[in-house]
Design a protein that fits this description.
6-stranded antiparallel beta sheet, globular, about 10% helix, Hypothetical Protein Tm1070, Chain: A, about 180 residues, mainly beta
Length: about 180
Amino acid sequence: MKRTSILLLIVLVVSCRNKPVNSGIMNQPADFDVSSLRTDIIPVKRISGQLLYMPVYSNVPYQIDTVMFDMSAFVAVHNTDLTSKIYLTKVLYFNQDGKLVFDFLKGNNLHLEPLSTKDFYIPYEDKSGTGANFLIEWTADSLVNEPLIESVTLCLKPNNTVAILSQGKVISEKR
């Protein structure tokens, strides 16, 4: 039995060694041609703009509302269109009382190229509460695939790791 345990330990140690990764492959720029896709491109939902409500959870009650568990969060806006860019026109962050905390774009528009993503980060120190949220408005010059907009709220502390994934709710849209 002891011999089997030692052999098993050796196999585990050897198999868990870090193996070098060929990072050269990831550093080579590559071209992408939409026409190389083999599926018939049948547009699903084509629209030219939306206003979304996106919940995030800056602080979560812990131990029966006596302690708040602080979390950081980020919202990711993914342009899922293969050929057209979209424009972010509003990225507003509100606390649980509905008060504006931060305007990420400060009146400017931000464009996202096809298949690109933009993140907006809320730091761990933020105290906006369990009802914190974003309003995100985007537009496009033509009908495009609906973008994917998600939030990840997380706390990565030892023995207290928490992560919450949320998707936005469309409030209005333009077709």
